[in-house]
Amino acid sequence: MRTxxxxxxxxxxxxxxxxxxxxxxxxVVDDADAAGALDAARDSGVRYFDTAPHYxxxxxxRRPGAALARRPRAEYVVSTEVGRLLIHSPRTxxxxxxxxxxxxxxxxxxxxxxxxxxxxxxxGSLRRLGLDHVDVVYLHDPDAHWRQAAGTxxxxxxxxxxxxxxxxxxxxxxxxxxxxxxxRRCDVDLVMVAGRHTLPDHSARDxxxxxxxxxxxxxxxxxxxxxxxxxxxxxxxxxxxxxxPASRALTDRAAAIAAVCAxxxxxxxxxxxxxxxxxxxVVSVVTGARDTAQSAGSARRVTADVPDALWAxxxxxxxxPGLDPVHRTTGRRA
Length: 334
What we know:
Layout: E1 3-4, E2 12-13, E3 15-18, H1 31-43, E4 48-50, H2 59-68, E5 77-82, E6 84-88, E7 107-111, H3 117-129, E8 136-140, H4 146-163, E9 168-173, H5 177-185, E10 190-194, H6 203-215, E11 218-222, E12 240-241, E13 244-245, H7 248-263, H8 268-274, E14 282-288, H9 292-302, H10 309-316, H11 325-328
Helix pairs in contact: 1-2, 1-9, 5-6, 8-9
């Protein structure tokens, strides 16, 4: 699998494995399936693995840590996120986590983007991963704490970057305005934007991507299937978008895009992975998996042959933005 290297930071494979589902997002994933997803990703050529303490209260860090411990450390890139401390909470361990993960609530999340909280968060992640360093650290969804995150938070991450504990620092969010602000005003190397550079949602294109190219910041596109709508060959009743029922307008547009894809011999899931990689600012597309089959399926999608002509037709219909010359310089393959 080809790699892409931002101006500052490590080389990324065009496809990365996100581990929220391996933290039991929305339901239990057993250890065998989790290990199968991780091994299948690596066997397919994936060398970028993204995780966070928030996912499964640390489970999504422990599982990749155990799987990757069998591999040479120089072979792979690991990113994690800071801003949520996991505080042991034995009094709630009999309950289930209320953050959307099917795990016992043996820890509670405490938001902290300060000078003390960020090093503590990173140290905890390193212990759970079993690593002495990670390659990338993102500030995790600091929406309500943006002033602190953009100031103290980024400044605090620069020190471990300069010591070599991390290779690159950035922010990871589900919006575009604050990540764009971090590229414009802060010393960040990367931004991870979830669900905003996708077939249904093009908001990152003008707000973030052009600025990232100008400033030399790399972009990681996550949640490219928007929780479900472009994840099947045809949108079905009950399809979700952003973890909520999709509107009629979105479902109709997804059906129109699916019809165009079919005429070009491409599936919407393949197009959803290929679309973000057209932009030269994008260094990787991160998708999740719950088992071997899903992990291997993502790898097949990212290497699918998606012809240039596919994008001209939906652009002419106003379904997706057209490709401008800057996109055509890079090609689509991961």
